[in-house]
Amino acid sequence: MSHSLRRAWNRLLGSLGLRNPDQDLADEIDAHLRHIAEDDIRRGLSPDEAHRRAKLRFGGVEAAKERWRDQRGLPVLDALGRDLRFAVRALRKTPAFAFGAVVTIALTVGATTAIFSVVYGVLLRQLPYRNAERVFWIWSDVPNRGRTPFNVPDFIDYRDSARTLSGVAGYFAYGANLSDESAAERVQGVRATGNLFDVLDTQPRLGRLLRAGDERPGGEHVVVLADSFWRRRFAADESVIGRTVRLNAEDYTVVGVLAPGFVMPLRDLEFVLPFAPEQDPRHAVRNSVNFVIGVGRLADGVSPQQAAAELTAIAGRLRERFPVENVRKRGIQMVGVLDGIVGPIRTALVTVFAGVGAVLLIACANLANLMLTRATGRRRELAVQLALGSSRLNVVRQVLVEALLVSVAGGVLGMLIARWGAAGLVALAPADLPRAGEIRVDVAVMIFSLVVSSLTGMLFGVIPALTSARVDVRDALQSGSRGTTAGSQRIRGLLVSSEVAIALVLLLVMTMLGKSFANVQAVAPGFDATGVLSARLTLPAKRFDTRDAIVTFQRALMEQLSSLPCVTQTGAVTLLPLGGLMSRVPFNVEGRPLERERSPFAQYRSVTSGYFEAARIPLRRGRTFSEQDTDRTRAVAVVNEELARRWLDGLEPIGARLLVNDTDTGARPVEIIGVVGNVQQNALDEGPTADLYLTYPQLHRDQVGAAAGNMFWIVRTGGNPMSLAPGLAREVRRIDADVVASQIRPMERYLSDAVAPRRFSVSLMAAFALAALALALTGIYAVVMYTVSQRAREIGIRVALGASHANIVRLLMGHGVRYVIIGLAAGVSIAAGVTRLLSSMLFGVLATDAVTFGQVVAVVAVVSVVACALPTIRVGRGVAGVLQAE
């Protein structure tokens, strides 16, 4: 009698109560031994011979039972070794599943690790300061202006009066021209009080750092170099200590090199020079420019709230003593040392990291579905193990070990992908990404990758493992591997709902960020950057300490640049639009009551004649500056439309006079001669600012130093702007060898950089959202396909009874669509909260925009229904084959 007939006969006897159930179990085990002998049969052995060898290999059924029982008491390492061997054999039998699972994990873990390397490098990597959580950057708080630096006398008062801070230091940005035997270049650094590094409590890499004695007048000119600059410019030569470098035509002795990873709220820190507040010419002028940023360390036992209260009280006392100069200074802002460095990039990074984490969860859900399907196909095998005496805990452990083996293999491959991904992210990130040099795949990141891959294995393995352990032995052995349970179907459906919900949230976030990005790009900058080359110059303060020296240099350079081929227009401005620098000045309209607490502020720029024409900023009324506007004529100004609309309402702008407080000694009158269009000075996603333009030949002496330190030139050409770069640099050096042209770039670069943070977030979120949608669709397709295969007999019977193809399709699709609807409902609820949290990143789009919600829900619903339909639309054509097979 054949094996299949014997099984049928035994089942019949069992149903009549004429057969011993233990004999049924023995026969099923015997059948399983035949099943595992399939490899021998493929090699040409007869079924009986293969079965005999299998029984010899296991020592018979009873021996196999005893073997499973003995393994219950194995030591942990031995049991783990056995489970690993079992997992390897099981995965070798399903190479397609193993390959797909490993690749899926590698890609998701690689992406997660790459993003984490950025998050860790920027937000989590320890700063080279002792007890960094007790260090704060300190600004003055001015209504409608936010964080404002201190002027020198205010800084001295805060420094000398604060008792809750163990130390108060100050610094400000300072650019310099470096010229030595190598090629000259412009470098960016800071001037800082000698106690800065004591307050930060950091150590040098080489030599020493600044100290209080370096501030004294007549002392040695010293400089401390940043580690990255030391490596780039001096090839990490340790003999640089004691060497002389020339900065802004003055000699400085290198006394130290900063520790690697030293950062401040300043892009591209390359050197630190000493700053003596008491020696500054503005140390007794309360109306002077605000430019000093404070740094404070909390005293022992003092909380940030106590320090903030004391500093606010100091601000109140200063306002009482100097009501005119300090009337708008309401208090202070203390910002944690890391928050002050990373700024708003924190929200974008956390959002992106959450996005890739969501993709990882979807991948886990997909893999769990695959594991559930695979476990269903192995019900017979697992039932035999339980029948042989293996405990359900052993079954759970075996399935989990398989999942962990797959996840660790994928994690190792994912680390390789992460190395490439991290480099790509740094290239894609905004140019001003803080702490970019700290981004790398190091030991901490590799540990994170292994932990994530292991947790991934647990996440996608635990549900299949528990489901496998609940298998009914007798039912599984009698029904074979075709059976399934309502519980496992529900689990698969809920996993699909979770995938749809997460994909919907990511796609909605991506769509809103994308719309915001498009809205920002659509904002008119107010100038024409096409065909314009820009460059930054810093004039040495020692030699360019008068207005005439600056104007003479400008006229000579303008004449030389105008003679270059293809140059049509040139001009200069103190601060370039969208350049990241700001200069604001209070003013008042002459003849109107002065309200000091509500006095307006304007974005303040000095320009040459020809600047508006070179930048193609449109003239709306009056005229722009000309060569006839000199220090011997009346002081004149050009304002933009926003200033005229907001502060000159009811007045004729041309001829109106403003009182501009841009000097240390008080306001001075200027007459408006023209109105130009609005320019986005700070950012494209901000409203128009009130802009006030003066001309270089009428610079006040108190503004000479700032004008010499910051001078941006723009050159318009009919060809490729960068073709002018060598000629521009050459002409600058020809006029003055100590002046260096830096940041030579097309002006369009500033437009690109202005949207770079949004482009970074949108690009990554788009990739994650599309990946999540693809994974969700794959999961839907797999679940519906599995349902079709499990209901093949039912489908055949329905068709035989007259059911139409359309009815069968609706029946099968209903199972998948039900879970899609659940996922859509859950996703909309979650997204409503998530988008509100991201409202600060949106521009021109409401966090609860119903149109966007509707569009995304419709897209996800349509593609999900298509994924449900694909496995079922062809089911009718296979019914005859199903009936024949059954």
Structure write-up:
The structure is a single chain. Strand 7 (244-247) and strand 8 form a beta hairpin. 51% of the residues lie in helices and 15% in strands. With 886 residues, the protein is an alpha+beta fold. The strands form three sheets. Strands 1, 2, 3, 4, 5, 6, 7, 8, 9, 10 and 11 form an eleven-stranded mixed β-sheet that branches. The protein has a six-stranded mixed beta barrel with strand order 14-15-20-17-19-18. The chain has 29 helices and 22 strands. Helix 25 packs parallel to helix 28 (850-869) and helix 26 (792-800) crosses helix 29. The radius of gyration is 37 Å and the shape is elongated.
Please summarize what this structure is.
The protein is α+β, with helices and mostly antiparallel strands.
